[in-house]
Amino acid sequence: MLPAQAKDPALGTTLFTVYEAYLSPAQEPGEESETPKLLEKSLGATAPSTPREQRKSRGHGQLRFSKDLSKAYVDVQIEGVDAANILMFHIHCGPPGVLGPVVVDLGEQGDLSKTLAGGKLSLELTNKNITYIRDMKGMKPGLPESCPAELGFAAQTKTLAGLEYLARKGVLYFNLHTRAHTYYGEMRGQIYAAQP
């Protein structure tokens, strides 16, 4: 028998598992005109919405996890969107056609209208970037602001390892929200394993 050959542990920070998404308005599960009445005022849309098939917005996003799951990297390129109109940009948890909770707020590190002014965004993520609700006051216990680690369990995703697990299952998506498209979003991209 040959002895086992362990790899250099340092490779864990330099090798990556890669996921990607192509963002388009066609992936949004509804039109802004279908926003629930109770939420319309609180969302504060400040521009008229455009039907999905008429929007020119498009994008590509990549999510790379280091093999040791200590860091993740987000690289996004968008076009057809005025950066001054961008309000929020998130990674949500939910299967195609379903709105889900925010797992990562891609705008928490600065002003998105400035960050995305050139149509590109690059961020490094660690466990601290995972949205996790500690105080459930006023929230329904079954609806935490982070995806469950496994459907049917109440435990929330708290780590990049959990985020990568959800990416592998195909239940993460990018969602870009603008002044005109605050509820469903301007465009969405379901995240899947990158094809070689």
Automatic annotation (TrEMBL):
Q: What is this protein called?
A: CHRD domain-containing protein
The source's domain of life comes to Bacteria
Which region ranges are annotated with the description Disordered? Answer: 42-62
What the entry lists under InterPro entries is as follows: CHRD
The UniProt record lists the CHRD domain at 51-191
Source species of the chain: Stigmatella ashevillensis
